[in-house]
Amino acid sequence: MALTAPEPGDAKSVIAVAMARAAARMGKKTIIIDCDPAHRTAAALGADGSAGLLEVLSGAVTLNDALVKDPRGQAFLLTLKARPTNAATMFASPQMARLIDILRDACDFVILDCGPTLSGPDASLIARHADATLLVSRRDKLQARSLVHATQALQNASAAPVGLVLAS
């Protein structure tokens, strides 16, 4: 499942962490991949590793060495320690697709915490790997044009089906 928001500040990473912790409490093998260069997932989870997604995709470290356990639960986190010079290329790469396939086979629940949809193509490229995409918006921005533009950007990129989550 991919989570994104039209703009920063819509609590999508907090929702991603809550979903991961709930799934882990139900006995589901759960991993969050922090694909947001703002590193909000690591902050919301209270955990951060020495290596992350870029290092795994480049082969510099193994996936097991890059995973960080949730200090308050059984979920795992793969951070985005270093943003590549061309993130869109990384997120659209065969290595990223292979990593998602490996995690899909090994885990019950994979959460892709994407950056804001309107900040560039990254969220749309990542959401293509998911089975579903949740667009998180604050209730007071429900009528904002940014929500419409974000939905259109995801649909135009053939991202996974979109659902909406309202945050306070």
Report on this structure.
- By secondary structure, the chain is of the alpha/beta class.
- The protein has a single domain (2-167), classed as Rossmann fold (3-Layer(aba) Sandwich).
- It has helices at residues 12-25, 40-45, 53-58, 63-66, 87-91, 94-106, 122-127, 145-156; strands at residues 2-4, 30-35, 68-69, 76-78, 109-114, 133-138, 162-167.
- A seven-stranded mixed beta sheet has the order 3-4-2-5-1-6-7, sandwiched between helices.
- The protein is globular and about 45 Å long.
- It starts with a strand and ends with a strand.
- The mean pLDDT is 89.
Going by helix content, strand content and strand pairing, the class is alpha/beta
The major pleated sheet works out as: 7 strands, mixed
- The CATH class is identified as Alpha Beta
Mean pLDDT score, rounded?
Answer: 89
Strand order of the largest sheet: 3-4-2-5-1-6-7
Strand content: 15-25%
Give the proportion of residues in helices. Answer: 25-40%
What coarse outline follows from CA principal-axis ratios? Answer: globular
Low-confidence stretches: none
The third-level CATH topology is Rossmann fold
Radius of gyration over C-alpha positions, nearest whole angstrom: 15 Å
Number of domains: 1
Name the CATH superfamily assignment: P-loop containing nucleotide triphosphate hydrolases
How many alpha or pi helices? 8
Question: What secondary-structure arrangement, pairings included, does this model have?
Answer:
Elements: E1 2-4, H1 12-25, E2 30-35, H2 40-45, H3 53-58, H4 63-66, E3 68-69, E4 76-78, H5 87-91, H6 94-106, E5 109-114, H7 122-127, E6 133-138, H8 145-156, E7 162-167
Parallel strand pairs: 1-5, 1-6, 2-4, 2-5, 6-7
Antiparallel strand pairs: 3-4
